[in-house]
Amino acid sequence: MAASGILASFKLGATTYSAADCLQSWQLAHSIQELIYQCSGVNKAAAGAVDATFSVSLALAASDTTKHAALDAGSTGAFEAHPGGDSSGFIEITATDSLVTRSNTTSGPRSIISYDLTIRLQDITLSAAT
Fold this sequence. Notes:
5% of the residues lie in helices and 63% in strands. The protein is mainly beta and 130 residues long. The chain has a 7-stranded antiparallel sheet with strand order 2-1-5-6-7-4-3, with no helix packed on it.
């Protein structure tokens, strides 16, 4: 049965961001580069380098200066994410290292302050939380 992401969370470095931080949505894009070569006149494929990026959108209060600075482009640290919440047996995504490559702040007279991030992940592991 499908589960809601209402309890989704992620951690960058020592700080966890969860529903209390107004996560609006997030996505993990995980792929490999396909290496194509020919053998006996037939195209064949092999797995190349892994590419993993995590994108997230948070709603911010005007006073969320600490969060805004902690997640700015260039921020690094170990990474952990839980799309359905951090409970034993639930999906867990970890990376030994990560780098915030994009951090956009948007606002307007009829909208909330939104902070949209892209985080590059290194040495990603997909597993179950313990």
